[in-house]
Amino acid sequence: MFESLSTRIQGAFKTLRGEVRLTPDHVEAALREIRLALLEADVNFKVVKAFIDRVRDRAMDQAVLRSLTPGQQVIKLVRDELLALFGDTEGGLTKDAPTPRVVLLLGLQGAGKTTTSGKLAKWLVRQGRHPLMVSTDVRRPAAVEQLSVLGRKADIRVHAPETMDPVARASGALAEAKAMGFDTVIVDTAGRLHIDDDLMGELQAISDAVHPSDLLYVADAMTGQDAIKSAGEFHRRVGVTGVVLTKLDGDARGGAALSVVSVVGVPIAFVGSGEQLEDLELFHPDRIVSRMLGMGDMLSLIEKAEQAIDKDEAAQLEEKLRKNEFTLDDFRSQLKALKRMGPLESVLGMIPGLGDLKQAAEHKPDEKQLGRVEAILSSMTADERRDHSVMNGSRRKRIAAGSGTSVEDVNRLLKQFTEMRRMLQTMGRGGMPGAGAGMKLPKMAHGLRPGSAPRGAGSGKKRKKGGPWGLMRTR
């Protein structure tokens, strides 16, 4: 979502890094670029003005202008002020709440409340909670059935009474939760405009009946400032405790995320960045700002890897690496794990130092090309994946025909795998991964090749050997 904004801001910083000493003119030129970038990203103009004024006041300090690293000092100031825009509150639900906790999802129609209900329930299960969902959207066709489908998919219980009264449905779900031991009730409400007094009255009645500890306004990040204005009105009428920004994986410009805390006065609780039930994350302002400034986000990368990698499989793979028994079957498993972590471009953006690389057209990762690699592996027999040395000319022709690629593509993949395996063997013996330093980039991979882990991966936590980033390396 922040790709365009991030590119503009980082471009403004590049001019500062080249200066030995900064002058007020240098600072003003950089701030002009940052101001334009924020306005183009649809950030509220009042928020932009206050932001630029605060950065200017701090950047013009003589201690900054005369420092040995003035460019880095200004970058730090911008980072601090961006964090202030997001607020210093970590995402998630309120800390203290009675049991069962009641979470009320509200917002405009089409913002993604029902899908977010399923995602939130799945997230709560990962936290060791036992949620119960209920739909009070009795006006939209199939809205109740949609939540039931999500519940079956996520293996989450859905309260489904015969009554079509929204207040009675919410109250019944709370009663069932108390009777059966559920610790959280997620109430999905109908989409409504804040100017619709009847629907707002219904929402207030539901809130009075179940006394929610969390009222989360679900906002489509692609609607920009309209979502922020509506959130402000909902907050004034019923009292919003947090915001859930959905569709952050789309082409939203980011203005909603940067404006919501300042304009509405409530924190961002969660962000949705995909269509799968697992694609809901706690909002961490420091991580988002680090990505925007090209500093990476290793903690989020590690968390995604831990969700994508099975611990038993990781232990087995580690043993295979030690014994030099890494096969094409293992390689295919690692590619699938990498895909479960999300779009490859997003994963690269979390690695410090690779922000510019992922934005460069000649290095931009191509998911379709990775799909071809997986197709080649899937076209092999189980025996061929276990022992690639059995490959001969006729087998390679058959694999190429079955995967829709060429024999040259198959040969290139096998050569890369052999070199990677030799390098992993060297690392397993305690050597340095220098064996792969001279490997040429396979054309089919378009900027990615099998190799070692990117520099800095696994910092902060012990990285599982053979993790999904351990098989893909940038040039």
Protein described:
- This protein is an alpha/beta fold and 475 residues long.
- It folds into 3 domains: 3-86, Four Helix Bundle (Hemerythrin (Met), subunit A), CATH 1.20.120.140; 101-292, Rossmann fold; 298-474, Signal recognition particle, SRP54 subunit, M-domain (434 Repressor (Amino-terminal Domain)), CATH 1.10.260.
- 53% of the residues lie in helices and 9% in strands.
- It has 21 helices and 10 strands.
- The protein has helices at 3-17, 24-40, 45-59, 62-65, 70-86, 113-126, 143-154, 166-180, 197-210, 225-238, 255-264, 285-292, 298-308, 311-322, 328-340, 344-349, 355-359, 367-378, 382-386, 393-403, 407-428; strands at 101-106, 131-135, 157-159, 184-188, 214-220, 242-246, 268-272, 280-282, 448-449, 473-474.
- The strands form 2 sheets. An 8-stranded mixed beta sheet has the order 3-2-4-1-5-6-7-8, with helices on both faces. Strands 9-10 form a two-stranded antiparallel ribbon.
- Helix 10 links the parallel strand 5 and strand 6 (242-246).
- Mean pLDDT is 76; it is low at 356-364 and 431-475.
Properties at a glance:
Rossmann fold; Four Helix Bundle (Hemerythrin (Met), subunit A); two-stranded antiparallel ribbon; 9% strand; 3 domains; 434 Repressor (Amino-terminal Domain); 8-stranded mixed beta sheet; disordered C terminus; flat; alpha/beta
